[in-house]
Amino acid sequence: MARLPRLTLPGLPHHVIQRGNNRQFIFVDRADREKMLSLLAEHATRQGVAVHAYVLMDNHFHLLATPSTATALPQWMQSVGRQYVRYFNDRHGRSGTLWEGRYRSTLIQPDRHLIRCMVYIDLNPVRAGLVADSRDFPWSSYGHYAGTRVDKLITPHPLYWELGNTPFSREAAYAEMVRTGISQADVNLLTDSALLGWAAGDEEFAARIQGSTDRRAVKMRPGRPPKAPVPDA
C-alpha cells in the first residue's frame, strides 16, 4: 500500500520521527549528536521552524516543531538529513543510506496533546531503559524546560508559558509532569499517529484539518462504510 502524503500545515505543531536504516545507530558519540543539534538549529533558523522539543536516541530521533510555511518543515528535514548523512559517512568511513526511508510526521492538536507530546519525547530514554530519570539524559529538551540548562535550539510554545507565572513555577510544573508521566494510551496514540500520519486530536480538530487538505486526516473506522439511504420512490 502506498504511503499517504504527509500532513504539513503552517502554524501547527508537528511530531516528527526519523529512524536509522535497519535500526542501525545514527549517533555513535557526543560529536555526532552535537553535529545533529547544530544542523537542526542552523536550518530551523533558515527555514522558519520553531523547535519545541527533541530527543536524540541511538538509532532514531523525535522532534516537536511548528513550521511557519507549508514548505518549511520538509525543507528543514531534507537539508538536515542530507548534510548529516554526508558528515556521518565521511567521519565513520561508510557509504550509502543512513535513514529508514523518509521521516514520519503528523499534526498535533496543541491544547490537547502538545504538552503531552513534550513529556512523551523527554521520557523516551526512560522508556528505552537508557536512564532511570529524564534529567540523566543530556540529549533531549528536558534540561531546558526543567531549568538545568539553556538550549538555544528550543523555542517554547505559548502553551508552555501557561504552566506558571514565573520561570521557577513553569520549570517545577513541567518537571512534575515528566515525573508523573503519561498513560500508555497516550504513548500509543502519539507513536502511532506520527508513524501512520494521522492527525492527533479530537473530532473538531480533525474536521478543521480535513478542511485544509485533500488527503484523509484521520484513520477510517474499521468495517464497511455505511450505505447511503435509498430515496423514496
Automatic annotation (TrEMBL):
SMART domains: Y1_Tnp. It comes from the Bacteria. PANTHER family: TRANSPOSASE IS200-LIKE DOMAIN-CONTAINING PROTEIN (PTHR34322:SF2), TRANSPOSASE, Y1_TNP DOMAIN-CONTAINING (PTHR34322). InterPro entries: Transposase_17, Transposase_17_sf. Residues 213-233 are annotated as: Disordered. This is Transposase. Residues 9-124 form the Transposase IS200-like domain. Pfam families: Y1_Tnp.
